[in-house]
């Protein structure tokens, strides 16, 4: 294959790499290396990191539970309006996250479409809580899982499922024992993408869940506020976020290469 | 009355407000309290306003680029229109963002002629860097308690912000309106039970206007701009906190004459009249 490299591709790819690498290099160049450890140990950072990691995990878990069945319906059924459903489900990817956050507030807020009656009867409130962060993350990040799993399901060989059916397996058993394991690579990739997107979520979170250290202040929110007052702290926070993201994205890349 | 129409439009278009807020504008009027250290930049004000306002019709032309704090958005659009009406050869280009964002852009070489900041420190930094020449204070703003229309939390004063049962929002302490709010609370001896530290004043206002928060602390001009969706409650006289906005010409601007004329217009009686109609006090 190496002999067949179309050479025009190489410089363009190099431009692509440089374009992404340069801002990160600039960030590293501005980093307060000497005080980095102190910056990272501050409670505001550890609180935000812990909240970010756990809420992103929870959002990924919710996305898996809802998203895999959704991807299956999109990939394997021919329900009417399927393409509209797909468009709807991917809408959060193109919507500015802040608009998503406002929409969530209209739906699940104290005066929201669903949130209003729920609050009036039970006193339960999603905004301004860690669950609100999870809700915002799920809304924004789930499409990444759904689309990835859907394309995985489309590419999968359905004859295994046919064989399982002829052997007498129930539909649920087939889904659980054949379909999902077959789609495992795409599910793992989708889950990682979903988690990474949730980890970096800003707009929907701040609009829907607000910002309070230890309760709803995730890393991106802490970075944003630190930028207003203390650039060194903001860069230090960003580096932590980048390090955590890379720890996830590198295995993700390996999986793609392996696949 | 113009204000009224604007207010209604804003109340109706809550979603739009949310979008606008999102664009990172810190809208908050960024205002820092008129701290002791600000005196040196205020001294030039009257002189500058006086001399330059005297010659508004000097042959100025071209484009004048004005960077202004987001909290000035509505007011400065009208100010710019009035300035253009009086100087037909001049076009005003307005750019609104948080004062600190604009400061960074100016330091990075953005070609602006005028900078109107909602806090003193941004202008002081530019003066120190040699990017701005002498500033003049042009308006004052003050903090107000904001509640949703109808005041569902039955808020009466700052003391209610300590109520655990109310949903309380402040500006984050990193932004000036958050610092100012905490100053007022400290004066009142109130430890607030905060549910969210909003990144800017407009996002706080938006959440109060939607009824998702029971009470917040914002600028009086923001309460006016939000119209019927919210109600403002004045702070008790001994709790009042105010902030002063400076305006300055920039040394790297492409049109210094027009920039100076714009500053003079803002400081003139007509400019002050427009600003007052948006709830700003004279400095």
TrEMBL record, chain B:
UniProt protein name: Molybdenum ABC transporter, substrate-binding protein ModA
Family: Belongs to the bacterial solute-binding protein ModA family.
Biased segments, Polar residues type: 40-49
NCBIfam families per UniProt: modA
Keywords: Metal-binding, Molybdenum, Signal
Position of the signal peptide: 1-27
GO biological process: molybdate ion transport
UniProt cross-references to Pfam families, sorted A to Z: SBP_bac_11
Annotated binding of molybdate, by residue: 71, 99, 201, 219
Ranges in a coiled coil: none
Cross-referenced InterPro entries: ModA, ModA/WtpA
Region feature (Disordered): 30-52
Species: uncultured Acidimicrobiales bacterium
Keyword Magnesium: no
Example GO molecular function: metal ion binding
């Amino acid at each position: 294959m190496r002999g067949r490299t179309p050479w025009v591709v190489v410089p363009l790819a190099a431009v692509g790499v440089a374009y992404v690498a340069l801002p990160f290099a600039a960030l590293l160049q501005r980093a307060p290396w000497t005080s980095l450890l102190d910056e990272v140990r501050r409670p505001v950072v550890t609180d935000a990191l812990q909240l970010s990691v756990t809420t992103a995990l929870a959002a990924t878990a919710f996305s898996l539970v809802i998203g895999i069945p959704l991807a299956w319906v999109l990939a394997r059924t021919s329900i009417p309006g399927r393409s509209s459903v797909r468009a709807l489900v991917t809408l959060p990817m193109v919507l500015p996250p802040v608009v998503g956050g406002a929409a969530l507030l209209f739906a699940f807020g104290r005066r929201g479409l669903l949130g209003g009656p729920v609050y009036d009867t039970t006193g339960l409130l999603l905004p301004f809580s860690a669950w609100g962060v999870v809700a915002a993350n799920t809304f924004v990040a789930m499409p990444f899982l759904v689309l990835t799993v859907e394309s995985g399901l489309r590419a999968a060989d359905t004859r295994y499922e046919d064989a399982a059916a002829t052997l007498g397996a129930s539909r649920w058993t087939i889904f659980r024992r054949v379909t999902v394991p077959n789609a495992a690579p795409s599910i793992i990739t989708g889950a990682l993408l979903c988690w990474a997107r949730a980890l970096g979520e800003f707009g929907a979170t701040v609009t829907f869940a607000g910002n309070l250290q230890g309760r709803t202040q995730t890393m991106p929110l802490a970075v944003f506020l630190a930028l207003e007052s203390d650039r060194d702290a903001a860069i230090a926070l960003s580096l932590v976020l980048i390090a955590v993201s890379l720890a996830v994205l590198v295995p993700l890349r390996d999986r793609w290469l392996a696949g | 009355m113009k204000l009224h129409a604007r207010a209604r439009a804003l109340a109706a278009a809550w979603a739009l407000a949310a979008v606008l807020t999102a664009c990172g504008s810190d809208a908050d009027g960024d205002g820092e309290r008129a701290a002791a250290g600000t005196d040196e930049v205020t001294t030039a004000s009257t002189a500058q306003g006086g001399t330059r306002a005297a010659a508004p019709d000097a042959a100025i032309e071209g484009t004048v680029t004005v960077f202004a704090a987001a909290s000035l958005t509505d007011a400065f659009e009208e100010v710019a229109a009035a300035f253009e009406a009086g100087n037909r050869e001049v076009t005003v280009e307005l750019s609104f963002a948080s004062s600190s964002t604009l400061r960074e852009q100016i330091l990075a070489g953005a070609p602006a002629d005028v900078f109107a900041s909602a806090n003193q420190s941004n202008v002081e930094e530019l003066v120190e860097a040699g990017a701005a020449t002498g500033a003049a204070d042009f308006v004052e703003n003050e903090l107000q308690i904001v509640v949703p229309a109808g005041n569902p939390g039955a808020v009466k004063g700052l003391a209610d912000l300590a109520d655990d049962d109310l949903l309380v929002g402040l500006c984050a302490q990193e932004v000036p309106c958050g610092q100012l709010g905490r100053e007022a609370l400290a004066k009142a001896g109130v430890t607030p039970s905060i549910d969210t530290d909003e990144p800017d004043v407009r996002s706080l206002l938006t959440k109060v206007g939607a009824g998702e928060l029971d009470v917040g602390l914002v600028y009086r001009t923001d309460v006016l701009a939000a119209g019927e969706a919210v109600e403002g409650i004045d702070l008790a006289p001994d709790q009042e906190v105010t902030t002063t906005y400076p305006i300055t010409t920039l040394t790297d601007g492409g049109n210094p004459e027009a920039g100076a004329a714009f500053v003079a217009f803002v400081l003139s009686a007509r400019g002050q009249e427009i600003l007052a109609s948006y709830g700003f006090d004279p400095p």
